[in-house]
Specification:
Strand 3 (134-142), helix 8 and strand 4 form a beta-alpha-beta unit. The protein has helices spanning 5-10, 27-36, 46-52, 58-68, 75-89, 104-107, 113-131, 147-158, 182-190, 205-213, 230-239, 247-252, 264-270, 281-284, 288-299, 303-315, 321-339; strands at 14-20, 94-101, 134-142, 166-170, 194-199, 219-222, 243-245, 274-276. By secondary structure, it is an alpha/beta fold. An eight-stranded parallel β-sheet has the order 1-2-3-4-5-6-7-8. The relative contact order is 0.15. Helix content is 50%, strand content 13%.
């Protein structure tokens, strides 16, 4: 089998399931939007912003992340942000994306829910027409805010079910367990939203268990610390509950000391439905193919394991069964030249 993993990864059909659209705000766009919207930033150049992207942990990153949001004001800002991400993905083999957005980070500063949603969805619709990238949108609750405030976001989302497929839970995990959001998740499930949640990034394996039992999530975002609990791993394997892992994010936020200690290979070896994603790529130094390449080299993934990750990305998606199989078949067609000479 070829060892040219970069060539294999470059055009490999794949889905991205853990992507915060606000986390794709590149320094150059941040500055351009600041000028367009007369927003004053504490940075004069893109180099100044890049220099600030040295984080001591998740909260350190979040402080800068929320500050960066201040330049997103008009509907066209959210449209331009989303379209820029899709343009990058069109040349990285991405054919489907399930995007997170954080409305509370915008409505709390006076931006209407519909302004945020309108810009994102118009770009997603263009992305499907122009680039062939399908999508689903997941609205996240901010876990550092009270659950009562999450209900406000849910009320808004209920008015736009045609655009919002699921609900998620993000922001600082430490000290903010899934149980704090049991009621709003129950309400969201009753309204027909598919639940997912960040768990096991900073938090312990018990947070993953609580996300499954209390929030009844269909997918676990990150889930790294699930591997600390063998019984939980066995449960996740039996149910084939997906994990949306984000290697470069974990490294930059110091969740792992070095990339060769990332648990993605252990997850695959255990039979977990693990996937590779970029999380907040502008802030963490790499989009989806960068994550595939870096973690593959660091932990020694084989070409077959890389192909498995791509297939997992579709199997773990919220596409219907017919579309999942069609996308997996596309992976097989793409990789045939790479695997023709395999033993």
């Amino acid at each position: 089998m070829t060892t040219d993993f970069d060539k294999l990864i470059d055009g490999l059909p794949k889905a991205e399931l853990h992507l915060h659209i606000e986390g794709t705000l590149e320094p150059e766009m941040m500055l351009a939007l600041a000028r367009r919207n007369n927003v004053t930033l504490p940075y004069a150049t893109a180099e100044d912003i890049n220099a600030a992207y040295q984080f001591d942990g998740l909260q350190d990153f979040l402080d800068l992340y929320y500050a960066g949001m201040s330049v997103l004001i008009e509907e066209r800002d959210f449209h331009d942000l989303t379209h820029a991400y899709l343009d990058k993905m069109a040349v990285q083999g991405l054919t489907h994306v399930e995007i997170f957005f954080d409305p509370q980070g915008h409505t709390d500063r006076g931006i209407a829910f519909e302004t945020v949603l309108g810009g994102i969805t118009s770009a997603l619709e263009e992305g499907e027409r122009e680039l062939g990238i399908t999508s689903k949108l997941i609205m996240c609750f901010l876990r550092h805010l009270p659950e009562e405030e999450a209900f406000g976001a849910l009320t808004s989302a209920c008015q736009h079910k045609e655009h919002i497929h699921g609900v998620g839970l993000d922001s600082g995990e430490a000290g903010n367990p899934p149980a704090n959001f049991a009621r709003v998740y129950a309400a969201a499930r009753q309204e027909g939203f598919i639940p997912v949640a960040h768990a096991g990034e900073e938090g312990p394996a018990a947070y993953v268990t609580d996300a499954l039992d209390i929030l009844q999530v269909a997918r676990v975002d990150h889930g790294n610390h699930a591997l600390d609990d063998p019984a939980l791993v066995a449960r996740l394997v039996r149910a084939q509950t997906p994990l949306t892992m984000c290697p470069l994010s974990n490294l930059r936020l110091k969740g792992i000391p070095t990339l060769d200690q990332h648990p993605i290979k252990r997850a695959l070896d255990a039979g977990l439905l693990a996937t590779v994603n970029s999380d907040d790529p502008s802030y963490f130094g790499g989009y989806i193919n960068d994550n595939y390449k870096a973690v593959s080299q660091a932990v020694g993934l084989s070409a077959r394991e890389i192909i498995t990750l791509a297939k997992n990305s579709f199997a773990a998606s919220f596409l219907d069964d017919y579309e999942k199989q069609a996308r997996i078949d596309a992976v097989d067609r793409y990789v045939e030249p790479f695997t023709r000479d395999a033993d």
